[in-house]
Design a protein that fits this description.
The protein is mainly alpha-helical. Helix content is 80%, strand content 0%. It is globular and about 60 Å long.
Length: 258
């Protein structure tokens, strides 16, 4: 199942290469302009510089919410149509700002919490550091499901967060592997200045991950007596494998010759 996850996510990106590049350009633009604006405002106003960082961060998460909806369409074998952007923006901006605010709080904890408890020392400080570390790790892994759950299952932020944690605790190994794939994809993106695969491809990966994982729950709902540890993935993925099809290097580069 994990191998097919990587295969489908890759070919979903490849089949929508232009759309992925254009969406990645949006990420690059936000990430590039935010520090430049903050640097330009710093001599004039420290508050203005900080406000530009806050605005850039908020814009990044709002844009991520919109791009995630496009990633969902791609994962569902649909076209990523830019005429849908305004509708997706209206639909997702609130939930995107909420996840952004949570990550801001996590960042504050990392920047100030870890040094504070490290300075305290002793067993109290050590326990606090261990607790904060694992809390952040768990949140980081669970939050991978936030945008996919928002796009595929629910729109109410509290329910989205709750379902994200349910998915994590019920699929812990899968979430860890997904996290590793995300880190690998992020590192590889650095070699192309995040143009390819980029943030959009990672969003596609997360959307595909949830889409495939939901097949497990459909199966368990139809077979309540089945073992949760013995999911017949080969049977469940037949349709998806047929839709992705067999690919060759020649077919990827020259599809009209296949």
């Amino acid at each position: 199942m994990l191998g097919f996850l990587v295969k489908k996510a890759f070919f979903d990106m490849w089949d929508h290469f232009l759309a992925v590049v254009i969406l990645n350009l949006g990420f690059i633009l936000i990430i590039t302009l935010t520090p430049l604006a903050a640097q330009a405002l710093a001599p004039l106003s420290v508050a203005g510089s900080l406000a530009s960082f806050a605005l850039g961060g908020a814009l990044l998460f709002v844009y991520s919410g919109v791009a995630s909806m496009a990633a969902r369409d791609i994962a569902n074998y649909e076209r990523a149509e830019f005429k849908k952007v305004i509708g997706y923006l209206k639909e997702t901006w609130k939930s995107s700002l909420i996840i952004g605010a949570i990550w801001l709080a996590v960042t504050v904890v990392v920047v100030f919490g870890f040094p504070f408890y490290a300075q305290i020392g002793g067993w109290i400080g050590l326990l606090a550091l261990v607790f904060l570390f694992w809390a952040i790790v768990i949140w980081s892994l669970a939050s991978q499901f936030y945008f996919p759950v928002r796009a595929q299952l629910d729109h109410e932020p509290r329910k989205v967060i709750r379902k994200s944690f349910v998915l994590f605790f019920d699929n812990t190994f899968f979430a860890i592997v997904l996290g590793v794939l995300t880190i690998v994809g992020f590192v590889l993106s650095g070699f192309t200045a995040f143009l390819i695969p980029g943030m959009t491809a990672l969003l596609i990966l997360h959307q595909v991950a949830l889409k495939l994982r939901l097949l497990k729950y459909d199966y368990l709902e139809e077979n309540p007596e089945a073992s949760r540890r013995d999911i017949p993935w080969d049977a469940l993925l037949i349709d998806e494998r047929e839709r992705v099809g067999k690919r060759t290097l020649r077919g990827m580069i020259f599809p009209w010759k296949e």
